C-alpha cells in the first residue's frame, strides 16, 4: 500500500501517499501507543462518522493520550482525504499515536500526539464468504480482562493477538478466528463482533471484554425495531452447537454470515440474509 499515487492527511496537511512516513523512533512503533478507527464511506457519506471520531478521542483518553484535534477537525480531515482522492465509496483509517520526541522510554508525555487519515477502496472484507458463510477457527489466544488492558479502546496493542490468530486461521483455510475471553466466554472475531440465532431469538456477547462495535450497536437496534428479542449475555462455547445461524458485524465486515466455527456448522438463514440486506440499505440511505 505504500508506493502509490494519492493523498494522505498527516498532522494537518495533505501529503503525497508515498511520502506519508514516520520516524523509526516513533513511540507508538516501540510501545503500541496508538489508537485508530476504521470507517466506511458510502455514496460520499461516512456511516456514523461522528460516532467513530468520538470513539477515537475516547480510545486516546483510555491510553492517557489527548488527541490534539476536535471532532469537527477530525471530520474535516476525513472528508478532505476522500475529496483529495476522489472517492465516494472507500474505507477510511484514522490513526492517532505518540510520535518521536524527547522521550524514548516508556513514559512519553513530552512526545507529540500525531494523527493521520488515509482512505482506500476496500471491497467485501471476507470475499466470497459474504454470500456463502465464513469459516472461523477458534483462536488459541483469549481476549484479555478489562483489568489487564483497556478493552474498550480501539488500540493497536489489542491487535497483536488478532494478527497471530488470523494467521493461524488462514493457515487452516479459515477466514478468521473467534476468540473466547479471559473467562472462557465467547467474545469476538479478530476485527468483528458476533451474533447467533436460535428459536427466533438473537444472542450476542456482553460488551464487557470486547470492542462494543458501532456496527454491533446498529444491528441490535435494527433487530429490536423488528421486534426480535436480542439477548445480550455471557455465551458459553458449549452453546455453539445449539445455535442455528451466526453472523459477524463490523465496519469492514459489514454483516457477514458465518457457516462454520471449528466443528460446528450454521445455515445462512433468512434472518441472517435479511439483516445483511437491511444493513446494506441503511448505510446507503
Ligand atoms: N471487534 C474488533 C476487535 C474490531 O477490530 C472491530 C472493528 N473495528 C469490531 C469488533 C467491530 O467494530 P465496528 O463495528 O465499530 O467496526
From TrEMBL:
<dbReference type="InterPro" id="IPR018300">
    <property type="entry name" value="Aminotrans_IV_CS"/>
</dbReference>
<dbReference type="GO" id="GO:0052655">
    <property type="term" value="F:L-valine-2-oxoglutarate transaminase activity"/>
</dbReference>
<keyword id="KW-0663">Pyridoxal phosphate</keyword>
<dbReference type="InterPro" id="IPR043131">
    <property type="entry name" value="BCAT-like_N"/>
</dbReference>
<protein>
    <recommendedName>
        <fullName>Branched-chain-amino-acid aminotransferase</fullName>
        <ecNumber>2.6.1.42</ecNumber>
    </recommendedName>
</protein>
<dbReference type="InterPro" id="IPR050571">
    <property type="entry name" value="Class-IV_PLP-Dep_Aminotrnsfr"/>
</dbReference>
<dbReference type="InterPro" id="IPR036038">
    <property type="entry name" value="Aminotransferase-like"/>
</dbReference>
<dbReference type="GO" id="GO:0009099">
    <property type="term" value="P:L-valine biosynthetic process"/>
</dbReference>
<dbReference type="InterPro" id="IPR001544">
    <property type="entry name" value="Aminotrans_IV"/>
</dbReference>
<keyword id="KW-0032">Aminotransferase</keyword>
<comment type="pathway">
    <text>Amino-acid biosynthesis; L-isoleucine biosynthesis; L-isoleucine from 2-oxobutanoate: step 4/4.</text>
</comment>
<dbReference type="GO" id="GO:0009098">
    <property type="term" value="P:L-leucine biosynthetic process"/>
</dbReference>
<dbReference type="InterPro" id="IPR043132">
    <property type="entry name" value="BCAT-like_C"/>
</dbReference>
<dbReference type="Pfam" id="PF01063">
    <property type="entry name" value="Aminotran_4"/>
</dbReference>
<comment type="pathway">
    <text>Amino-acid biosynthesis; L-leucine biosynthesis; L-leucine from 3-methyl-2-oxobutanoate: step 4/4.</text>
</comment>
<comment type="similarity">
    <text>Belongs to the class-IV pyridoxal-phosphate-dependent aminotransferase family.</text>
</comment>
<keyword id="KW-0808">Transferase</keyword>
<dbReference type="InterPro" id="IPR005785">
    <property type="entry name" value="B_amino_transI"/>
</dbReference>
<dbReference type="GO" id="GO:0052654">
    <property type="term" value="F:L-leucine-2-oxoglutarate transaminase activity"/>
</dbReference>
<dbReference type="GO" id="GO:0052656">
    <property type="term" value="F:L-isoleucine-2-oxoglutarate transaminase activity"/>
</dbReference>
<keyword id="KW-0028">Amino-acid biosynthesis</keyword>
<comment type="function">
    <text>Acts on leucine, isoleucine and valine.</text>
</comment>
<keyword id="KW-0100">Branched-chain amino acid biosynthesis</keyword>
<dbReference type="GO" id="GO:0009097">
    <property type="term" value="P:isoleucine biosynthetic process"/>
</dbReference>
Amino acid at each position: 500500500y505504500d508506493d502509490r499515487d494519492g493523498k494522505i492527511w498527516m498532522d494537518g496537511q495533505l501529503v503525497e501517499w508515498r511520502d506519508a512516513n514516520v520516524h523509526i523512533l516513533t513511540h507508538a512503533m516501540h510501545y503500541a501507543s496508538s489508537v485508530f478507527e476504521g470507517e466506511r464511506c458510502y455514496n460520499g457519506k461516512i456511516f456514523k462518522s461522528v460516532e467513530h471520531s468520538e470513539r477515537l478521542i475516547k480510545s486516546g483518553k483510555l491510553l492517557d493520550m489527548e488527541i490534539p484535534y476536535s471532532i469537527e477537525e477530525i471530520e474535516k480531515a476525513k472528508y478532505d482525504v476522500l475529496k483529495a482522492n476522489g472517492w465516494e465509496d472507500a474505507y477510511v483509517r484514522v490513526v492517532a499515536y505518540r510520535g518521536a520526541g524527547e522521550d524514548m522510554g516508556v513514559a512519553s508525555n513530552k512526545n507529540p500526539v500525531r494523527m493521520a487519515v488515509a482512505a482506500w477502496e476496500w471491497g467485501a472484507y471476507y470475499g466470497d464468504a459474504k454470500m456463502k458463510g465464513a469459516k472461523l477457527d477458534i483462536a488459541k489466544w483469549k481476549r484479555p480482562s478489562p483489568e489487564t488492558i483497556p478493552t474498550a479502546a480501539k488500540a493497536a496493542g489489542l491487535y497483536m493477538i488478532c494478527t497471530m490468530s488470523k494467521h493461524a486461521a488462514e493457515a487452516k483455510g479459515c477466514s478468521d478466528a473467534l476468540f473466547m475471553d479471559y473467562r472462557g466466554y465467547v467474545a469476538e472475531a479478530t476485527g468483528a463482533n458476533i451474533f447467533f440465532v436460535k428459536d427466533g431469538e438473537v444472542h450476542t456477547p456482553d460488551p464487557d471484554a470486547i470492542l462494543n462495535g458501532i456496527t454491533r450497536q446498529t444491528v441490535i437496534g435494527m433487530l429490536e425495531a423488528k421486534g426480535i428479542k436480542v439477548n445480550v449475555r455471557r455465551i458459553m462455547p458449549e452453546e455453539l452447537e445449539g445455535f442455528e445461524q451466526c453472523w459477524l458485524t463490523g465496519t469492514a465486515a459489514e454483516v457477514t454470515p458465518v457457516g462454520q466455527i471449528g466443528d460446528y456448522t450454521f445455515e445462512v438463514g433468512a434472518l441472517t440474509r435479511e439483516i445483511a440486506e437491511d444493513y446494506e440499505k441503511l448505510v446507503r440511505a
